[in-house]
Amino acid sequence: MATVAATPETQRIEQLVLDFLAYLEFERGLSRNTLEAYRSDLLQYGRFLATRDVSALDATGRDVGDFLTSLATGSGGSKPASPATIHRKTACLRSFYRHLRRDGLVENDPTAALSAPRRSRKLPHVLTRGEVERLLAQPRGGEPAARRDRALLELMYACGLRASEAIGLEVGDVDLEERVLRARGKGSKERVVPIGQVAARAVASYLEHGRPALVKGRPERHLFVNFRGAPLTRQGLYKIVRRHALTAGLADRMSPHTLRHSFATHLLAGGCDLRSVQEMLGHADVSTTQLYTHLSSERLKDVYFRAHPRATAG
Q: Which candidate in 182, 201, 253, 257 is catalytic?
């Protein structure tokens, strides 16, 4: 979209957005990343309205619809936005105008009649149990880095950790006697997750024979460190996962999040109830976890059609 000079209207929407974000942060506890995404979306909407000399408080359903259409078609000069992006921006605008109505700033909600594009739910890649075993067997030997990699991969699969949670773990977050760890998820929310026996052994080996050689006596709270003894970064974790995925022949199917997807799917396939998986994953809404129910049923169908003698014709 064309750059728009600051006007009373753009300044006005900036203040409305700040008030809305403060509500989201203090009343609903949304994360910084979500707040920043909402801020960006609403200021983009404000710039669009400024080209029409329309206030956010006076915008009509047609103004909102034209804004979303311009995103979908790329008519503002940028490439067309994906359905998922438009879905997010639509949800943001709906929430924004609900807030304005609660505060009595608008009488009619211009988003009331919106129909957002249907967002396709792209199913994540999930490894089979055999593929997970192959991946976890890749860090070989007793070198400090190999012990670290083995502990890292085992723990991510055993506990369904996000990449940010794995690199954020501190030594004190892991209780190997009780076999549990404390993970800090989105929005700084903490949860306690059990640790399987194999993962616990790998972490114990790393703590005793691997990590001391990496930190070299320097004080460091983070559990996973690089060869300089500094906290492992997201990029460092990604390289570790990709390197071992490559040697396991899984490079085209792997990212750090793949282990989390596999953790959830394998638990559900093994009979774990949905609410327990939701709690272990740290999902705020069970509908997010239900995606893995679909994955499990798809896998069951695959097994059925491969194994049952009368499942296919001929």
A: 257
| Inter-residue contact 60 to 110 (CB < 8 Å) | yes
Structural domains in the chain, sorted by start: 8-102 (1.10.150), 129-307 (1.10.443.10)
d(CA 252, CA 104): 52
Confirm whether 257 is a catalytic residue. Answer: yes
Closest CA to 7 of 51, 38, 45: 51
CB atoms within 10 A of CB 199: 25
pLDDT for position 304: 65
Find the catalytic residue in 186, 191, 201, 242: 186
Structure tokens at 58: 């006076």
Overall average pLDDT of the 125-131 stretch:
89
pLDDT tens digit sequence for 19-64: 899 888 877 777 788 889 999 999 999 999 999 999 999 999 999 9
Residue 186 designated active-site: yes
For residue 82, give both structure tokens: 């994906």
Q: Which of 89, 162, 222, 244 is catalytic?
A: 162
The residue from 150, 260, 261, 266 that is catalytic is: 260
- Return d(Cα 243, Cα 230) in angstroms, integer: 20
Using alpha carbons only, give the angle 219, 168, 190 rounded to the nearest 5 degrees. 120
